[in-house]
Amino acid sequence: MYFFDSSADSIGDLNKNMKNNENLTVIFFLAPWCGYCKELKPVIDNIESDLDKSGLNGIMAKVYDDKIDNLRPRKKVVSFPTISVFNKNGKKGKKGKKGTYEDYTGSRNPADLTRFLVSVFEKNKHRFDEKKKKKTLLRRLNGLKKGENILKRMSSRIKKPRIHPWKKLSNVYKTVKNKLKRGRKYKIGGRTKKRRKKRRKKKAIRK
Fold first, then answer.
1. Is the dihedral of CA 109, 126, 54, 90 positive or negative?
2. Which of 58, 148, 174, 183 is deepest in the core (most CB within 10 A)?
3. Phi and psi dihedrals of 83, rounded to 5?
4. Calpha distance 33→41 (Å, rounded)
5. What tens digit of pLDDT does each residue of 60-105 get?
6. Are 26 and 103 in contact (CB under 8 A)?
7. What confidence category does residue 200 fall into, taking pLDDT thresholds of 50, 70 and 90?
8. Which three-class secondary structure string do you get for the chain?
9. By C-alpha distance, which of 9, 52, 4, 47 is closest to 25?
10. Is 0.85 topped by the overall pTM?
11. Lowest mean pLDDT among 29-33, 109-113, 134-138, 163-167
């Protein structure tokens, strides 16, 4: 959480944080002469101390009337106190600038106000978690693609083992020898022993 007070801090720091940070920003527009603002200030301080320990993400700012004109993007404040939520990723305005302010119109009771602020900053946490998940998924996908490319390169470089012709002949000789041992008849020079016997008989009959 980033807490800002325009009475102590430079408004330029808030503008930079709002510009560079994608989290939702809650701004309390106050005036030192406003009685309601004086009642609301200790409530805001107590909520700030509670949110500081919560681990939530976001910007919570107190901007006084003399610094409102220096705020960017600009905001028209008609009455005090005004509580606004700034969304950097909101729709573009008339001048084409991105970002929108949305005023809070609910109760200013400490419990209700705390609930509202927690709900706003929890949205930031969900958005941050989703972005983190997307980034990790993209990294994994890129890693898988790189792994596939590496495997393809490796497979293209690996040559198939060549078998020497003498080894091929020795393997053939072994198979023939084993089958001859089992009593199988094999061709020798393209003819079997049976064929030779038949031919001899035919020759004897002709004579």
1. negative
2. 58
3. -110, 120
4. 13
5. 999 999 999 999 888 999 999 999 999 877 655 444 456 789 999 9
6. no
7. confident
8. CEEEECCCCCHHHHHHHHHHCCCCEEEEEECCCCHHHHHHHHHHHHHHHHHHCCCCCCEEEEEEHHHHHHCCCCCCCCCCCEEEEEEEEEEECCCCCEEEEEECCCCCCHHHHHHHHHHHHHHHHHHHHHHHHHHHHHHHHHHHHHHHHHHHHHHHHCCCCCCCHHHHHHHHHHHHHHHHHCCCCCCECCECHHHHHHHHHHHHHHC
9. 4
10. no
11. 163-167
Place of tokens 């939530």: 56
Tell the residue number behind the tokens 């020898």, with chain if given. 177
The residue type found at 17 is: N
CB-based contact 30:80 (threshold 8 Å): yes
State residue 133 phi and psi, 5-degree precision: -65, -45
Amino acid found at 185: K
Q: Which residue has the tokens 């005090």?
A: 80
Neighbours of 197 (CB within 10 A): 10
The torsion angles phi and psi of 3, rounded to 5 degrees, stand at: -110, 135
Domains annotated on the chain, with CATH: 2-131 (3.40.30.10), 171-206 (no CATH)
